[in-house]
Amino acid sequence: MKRKGSGGGVSRRSFLLACVLLPGGLGALSILESKFPSYRYVMREFDIDPSYINDPWFREFIFRNEERYRRFYENSLKRGKEYIPLFKDLLSSGGLSHLFVYLSMTESGFKRTARSNKKAAGLWQFMAATARRFKLKVDKHRDERYDPVASTKAAMEYIQTLYRMFGKWYLVMMAYNCGEGRLRRAIKKAGTDDFATLMNEKAAYIPKETRNYLRKILLLSMMGEKIKSSPEKKDIKIRDIILPDTEVAVNIYGGISLERLAEILRMNPGRLAKLNPQLAGGRIDAELGLTQVFIPRDRLPYYQAFYTPPTLKEIYRNKHYSRLIAHIVRPGDTLRTIARAYHTTPLDLIIANQLERVKLEPNSIIMVPVTQREFERRRRY
User: Could you point out which of 54, 137, 323, 346 has its C-alpha 20 to 30 Å from the C-alpha of 145?
Assistant: First the structure.
């Protein structure tokens, strides 16, 4: 038996879909304008003509996905609420639109440990090769794709690199998703880099996944931005940016396990490992030297009271140093250049000389720890 209202009539869902797809029909556009008052601002930030709000495929995408992506937005906001201001400040300080924070939201939902089936990882979903290309460490000791600050700086550099290649922000987002080569082929085939042309559903110049990726970023941006004009740019220096209130970065010298560090901090080692997915194998290897580790803010007093860096004697033993050599600082010398010359590290120079600042004065003396082999080699010359 047919339900009441079925038969030859038009279903309510079909009717609503028709309303959305009809250009200007039944006030559909005015509904979107009132629901997403920042759409003009969002689209202009990404070099997209605001008239794209009229695009029938975009409006159908909103109709079909708004409720689902609003839940996704709210859940992402809960996970990333402490990092979003940090990301926006980093992006703005680097000369990028803070709206690229929604690219990260789209990529990972702000799950710090996110990992895709294709082995992309972290908040910005870097593949290992791309991460290394932009100076992130991905090896057996550390995976900086999971480091919120380091990965954001790498993403900024990648975004700027893509912009130098393609010259439009929407092309940057397309390339971020489908790859530089795939986008170049699409532009060549289309004969233009026009946004509406590349996004055409029937022509399918770029993959469907990429078309929906762009639509998702736009929709999330319009949900998140409640203003119609660009916020004031702040004079922010990256070094002044602090981490969320719930955690803090501390300096730990390599050669200690996270389990031992958790004992010192009187906390669960699993929780510490979860905060530091960038450290592989549950250990801060000695090769890393001094590295930053994220700990809960309420554990900071325990770090200050109970964490003791290795002594100079311990460092010497671990690195097989046997001698101290006096080096007279020449103009242009830096800790890095001196360390490289003697096969040591800048950090070991700082520790050996108890330096409070890294700027060196010409004609001053720096004591350099060296191995017996290095000492013998230099004595011969």
Answer: 346
CA atoms within 13 A on the CB side of 325: 23
Task: Show the tokens assigned to 216.
Answer: 């998702």
Tokens 């995408």 identify what position? 61
Q: Which domains does the chain have, with CATH numbers?
A: 20-224 (1.10.530.10), 245-306 (3.10.350), 312-380 (3.10.350.10)
pLDDT of res. 358: 66
Tokens 């510490």 -> residue: 272
Measure CA of the first residue to CA of the last residue in the chain; give whole Å. Answer: 101
Residues 55 and 61: their CA atoms lie apart, in Å, by 10
Rounded CA-CA distance 338/349 in Å is 9
pTM greater than the 0.70 cutoff? no
User: Cα–Cα distance between 304 and 325 in angstroms, integer?
Assistant: 32
Q: With beta carbons less than 8 A apart as the criterion, state whether 296 and 271 touch.
A: yes
CA pair distance 292, 218, nearest whole angstrom = 35
Contact 262, 302 (CB under 8 A): no
Whose structure tokens read 């060296």?
A: 370
* 8 A C-beta contact, residue 44 and residue 168: no
For residue 280, CA distances in Å to 52, 81, 122, 265, 283 come to 45, 26, 14, 20, 7
Please provide the DSSP assignment of 279-325 as one string: BGGGEE-GGG-EEEEEEEGGGHHHHHHH--PPPHHHHHHHHTEEEEE
Q: What is the pLDDT of residue 191?
A: 96
Quickly count: other Cβ atoms within 10 Å of residue 373's Cβ.
11
**Which position has the token pair 């593949």?**
127
